Amino acid sequence: MHSAPDQYEQLRRALRNKRKELHLTQEALAEILGTSPTHMSRIERGQAVPGRDLLIRWCKTLDVSLDHTLLPETSGLDPRVLRLFQDVQRLEQSKQDRICHLLELLLRSENIF
What we know:
68% helix, elongated, 434 Repressor (Amino-terminal Domain), mainly alpha
């Protein structure tokens, strides 16, 4: 399992690489995310840690998953399950609730738990 600093370093690197891949400057991304370019620069250099809300907006904006960096236990999941999980996460809450309910019913009917 990765240590917390290693996990954060992986995430910082993934976010920086994705920003560059999309040809976004730190300034442009900071404006999109509603933060300062200085703060973005400090985060990318490892001199600051983003708050939870900023981190979530940042990952959603760049379409970077937290799963493999902050939740390494998901790396052992069947890729189909992980992809479905990520697709469900993108849905509005009421649809997520319905899908969870259906899965619970299905798993109970199969005596899985």
